[in-house]
Specification:
The structure holds two protein chains of two kinds. By secondary structure, chain A is an alpha+beta fold. Helix content of chain A is 58%, strand content 13%. Classes of the chains: A alpha+beta, B mainly alpha. At the A-B interface, α7, α8, α12, α14 and α15 of A face α1, α6, α7, α12 and α13 of B.
């Protein structure tokens, strides 16, 4: 009976929640949808990195130094010419030129390493909880294969890239979360109460925005003692990133507060005698949330790029931590990239992540704006 | 106009003080002070540590005094041209930063000029030819420019330079000019080497300025006054430059100021990858070895460069837009 009553009530049938409206507008934005899909996939990989990486990212293989990438072949013909589904890679053997001693790899068509989908690998805990041994793809026996090639210590770049996804993508999230707290606090107070706090904080924000960020970041992270363990260093870097990165969010929040403050419903709430905190969280926040989410998704790529840059320069995360920036540090000198151009592959992931997050953020911003017009 | 310039210039003084304070915080941030690092370095090198010398240095930098007093000592010394000592180079910092800062300034100025020169016409083109093949090409290149970290582009270019062209794209001078005295030939050599770093560093700010210019112009392009002007028979190019472009220019110029810190920030990594003789690689090295007076001087000078750049952009904006200078 109750459901029937609901349908009959004209006020309910005629309304859609704010989030449904946003979703409806967002879905029309094809690039933003593509961005959403890629970002979701990257975060899935980041969350379950151990499942996706066939090998331990720090395991070395001295005989496979700078091993080139291998392509997976899915089908194999037996002697009678019947094709069957057996994914494998063709092994490569290292040969050394007797005169110049330059190493080169050549395919050995007879030797194959078979790959098992959901095969067994090193035991691990999925998401740190569920003990598992299955890998998405695993080599048969003790074999190794290199989808993205190997680095100067024979470490599998595919596993390392997957493992780096976790740190690179999460540092963006955590850094932005910290910036958001700072930004909402400063921007919210400045926008709501205005007055001297607004004037002072606006000047401070302008000052920070007038600084070249990378030299400041470098200067601050140079102060982190080198003997801190990787986890502490990770958090220290995140704190440093957000200390400089919160200003943009504070500006957005302040601007929205200013715009909302004079809206009728906010004035009404205040005249009703609601306390500032209640006005802010009960009445203003719901209409701010969508904008904040959009700004957050545009701030994440900035953080990802910053971490990559710092680690690339050797003042961000340090090995044994694995992030895309740490991996790209290997591609720093010209000799390494001339012999092993596949060391660039983590860079492709950086670009992919940043581009998708930008598209996603643009789409969200357009969708969250009720006054947005169709424009080229 | 003069009043505005004066006011705006006075405004940047608190910014400069803020920047110097920040630079000093960074100098002070590493554990231990300058002299403990210096003494450790001497001992590691097997040299005897001269206590009298250490004490005189301690006195010179005021290391026993509170933070604010040390800051005061540091900043007043800088105003007299004394940036402190680099313990790694065993030289006054001022001697080390001079020429490198000059190249940093040249690089930043060329990049900002490049950004203006490209973003303006391309943005206008992209707006008036909306949804044509050319517009899409610009849009796609723009997004790639925004998303690709510029050091990645630098590395890729270096790779192609070495592997396919056999050319070295690093540095700012060809070997024969590196130590030669200044001449026209050396200047031309510098200009030809500037092209690649300028394009790489300017890429992302150019891309975002193109988007801004395009959006601004699109807002103006379909307004009634444009139709009126066209109906009265004004030539298409003259019409475009005289009305909508002029109006679309204002928000464009005001964002240029913010492009300046971005360019200096971006040049840090690119200069390192391409081993340019600018401030950035030496600053990075100083930070790595915790040679903090040298690093702090570079950070301070880069911040000043960025603040002065913004000041100049703001004054330019006032020249373009009368509403700003009379407000």
């Amino acid at each position: 009976m109750q459901t029937e009553a609901k349908v009959l009530d004209p006020r309910i049938t005629a309304s859609a929640s704010q989030w449904r409206l946003i979703w409806g507008r967002f879905r029309k934005h094809k690039l933003a949808m593509a961005g959403l899909v890629i970002v979701t996939l990257l975060y899935l990989v980041a969350a379950f990195a151990e499942f996706f990486q066939p090998f331990d990212p720090n395991s070395t293989a001295s005989q496979d130094v700078y091993h080139p990438p291998q392509a997976i072949r899915f089908f194999e013909a037996d002697g009678a010419g019947n094709w069957s589904f057996r994914p494998h890679v063709i092994d490569m053997v290292l040969t050394r030129d007797p005169l110049t001693l330059t190493a080169s790899y050549a395919e050995d068509p007879d030797a194959k390493t078979y790959i098992h989908v959901l095969g067994y690998g090193e035991p691990y805990r999925l998401a740190g909880l569920i003990p598992m041994q299955h890998k998405l793809i695993a080599a048969e026996g003790d074999g190794r294969f290199y989808l993205f090639g190997a680095d100067r210590m024979g470490r599998d770049l595919f596993s390392r890239t997957v493992s780096g996804t976790r740190i690179s993508m999460s540092i963006g999230l955590i850094g932005v979360a910290m910036s958001l707290v700072l930004g909402m606090l400063v921007g919210g107070v400045a926008g709501y109460f205005a007055g001297w706090f607004d004037r002072v904080s606006s000047r401070v924000i302008e000052l920070i925005m007038a600084m070249p960020t990378i030299p400041i970041w470098l200067g601050l992270s140079a102060a982190i003692p080198a003997n801190w363990d990787p986890m502490t260093r990770y958090f220290a870097i995140t704190v440093i990133l957000s200390l400089v990165g919160w200003t943009e969010l504070a500006r957005v929040v302040r601007g929205r507060f200013f715009a909302l403050k004079t809206e009728d419903f906010v004035v009404a709430a205040r005249l009703d005698g609601a306390r500032p905190l209640r006005v802010i969280f009960r009445h203003m926040m719901p209409s701010l949330a969508s904008h904040i989410i959009a700004s957050v998704s545009l701030a994440i790529p900035v953080m990802i790029l910053a971490e990559t840059s710092l680690s690339f320069l050797g003042l961000g995360l340090l090995p044994p931590s694995v992030s895309w920036g740490v991996l790209l540090k290997e591609a720093q000198n010209i000799r390494a990239i001339a012999t092993a151009p596949w060391l660039f592959i983590p860079g492709i992931f950086v670009a992919l992540a940043v581009l998708s997050l930008n598209f996603l953020g643009d789409g969200l911003r357009d969708a969250a704006d009720p006054y947005a017009q169709e424009r080229g | 106009m003069l009043a505005y310039i004066l006011r705006r210039t006075l405004w940047s003084i608190p910014f400069l003080i803020g920047a110097s304070f920040l630079a000093f915080v960074i100098i002070q941030a590493p554990p231990g002070d300058y002299l403990t690092t210096y003494a450790a370095k001497l001992e590691a090198a097997g040299q005897s540590v001269d206590t009298a010398r250490l004490n005189s240095l301690r006195d010179r930098f005021g290391l026993d005094e509170p933070f604010i007093a040390q800051y005061w000592k540091w900043i007043t010394n800088i105003l007299r041209g004394d940036f402190g000592m680099s313990f790694e180079w065993q030289q006054p910092v001022a001697d080390l930063v001079g020429e490198r800062m000059l190249f940093s300034i040249i690089l930043a100025l060329s990049t900002i000029l490049f950004t203006w020169a490209v973003a303006l016409p391309v943005g206008v083109y992209s707006a008036i030819r909306k949804y044509t093949a050319g517009d899409y090409v610009v849009t796609v290149i723009g997004f790639i420019g925004l998303a690709t970290p510029n050091f990645l582009v630098a590395l890729t270019l270096m790779y192609f330079g070495v592997v396919y062209l056999g050319a070295d794209v690093t540095g700012l001078f060809s070997p024969q000019y590196a130590t030669a005295p200044w001449s026209w030939a050396k200047l031309l050599d510098l200009l030809s080497h500037l092209v690649i770093p300028v394009v790489i560093i300017g890429m992302s700010s150019t891309a975002s300025l193109i988007r801004i210019m395009r959006a601004n112009l699109l807002d103006e392009l379909y307004k009634p006054y444009v139709t009126t002007a066209r109906a009265k028979g004004l030539g298409e190019l003259k019409l475009l430059l005289k009305y909508p472009v002029r109006l679309a220019l204002n928000p464009f110029v005001s964002t240029i100021g913010w492009a300046f810190p971005q360019i200096i920030s971006g040049s840090t990594i690119v200069a390192f990858v391409l081993s340019l003789p600018t401030a950035d690689p030496l600053m990075l090295q100083a930070l790595m070895s915790q040679d903090m007076y040298l690093a702090g001087a570079f950070i301070l000078l880069l911040c000043i460069l960025s603040i002065v750049g913004m000041l100049v952009s703001d004054i330019l904006l006032a020249v373009v837009d009368p509403r700003i200078r009379y407000n």
